[in-house]
Amino acid sequence: MSTWNSGGGPPPIVPRPPSRGGPNVALIAGIAAAVLVIGGGVAYFVLSPSDPDEPAGQQTSESAQTSDAPTSEQSEDDNDRLMKVLPRGYPDGACKPVARLDGALATIACTVNKDPGGPMSATYSLLVDSAALKTAIDDLGTTSTVVDCPGRIQSPGPWRHNASLHEVSGTLMCGIQNDNPMLAWTNFDDQMFAVVQGRPAGPTLDNLYAWWSTHS
């Protein structure tokens, strides 16, 4: 028989020592709450646009519109560049931009040139490169009756400025197009392709060639 029951009283209560390895519930709860607050702040920072009054989608759209804006300005610059290299003899308002030739940055159509022997009509195009110049005059040859230029000058063939006879300046072509005398040339320096026309009653091909020789 156990000795603690010899007197008839209850056994003594021995207090349990506190646990040393158990989790601190209050501390964990505090950390979890702090993480939620910080995480919410990060999410708001990442997802919010830089300017709350201007949605991100609108910013992207406006950026795209800005990048497209120079297109019309570039076209105006190309027209101005072409206007500056047109042959002399055209009065104000005689030349205006028209639909661009394939491979051209700008195309300008002109009415009568007032200088002696000047064409009745003409188109001038600013082309993108030398390959486009060659394509343009080659294509013209397929839609025209090609003939020698006055003085038995090769057509199509190279032409040169008198001041630089050792350098080819472009290609010259003479012909008949829609029953009208026609003269065309390319200019490598100006990247220009020109087609000028006379009429059966004049100016004749001889007239056009004489005009071109002083205006090219």
UniProtKB/TrEMBL annotation:
<dbReference type="GO" id="GO:0004674">
    <property type="term" value="F:protein serine/threonine kinase activity"/>
</dbReference>
<feature type="transmembrane region" description="Helical">
    <location>
        <begin position="25"/>
        <end position="47"/>
    </location>
</feature>
<keyword id="KW-0472">Membrane</keyword>
<feature type="region of interest" description="Disordered">
    <location>
        <begin position="49"/>
        <end position="79"/>
    </location>
</feature>
<keyword id="KW-0808">Transferase</keyword>
<keyword id="KW-1133">Transmembrane helix</keyword>
<keyword id="KW-0812">Transmembrane</keyword>
<protein>
    <submittedName>
        <fullName>Serine/threonine protein kinase</fullName>
    </submittedName>
</protein>
<keyword id="KW-0723">Serine/threonine-protein kinase</keyword>
<feature type="compositionally biased region" description="Polar residues">
    <location>
        <begin position="57"/>
        <end position="73"/>
    </location>
</feature>
<keyword id="KW-0418">Kinase</keyword>
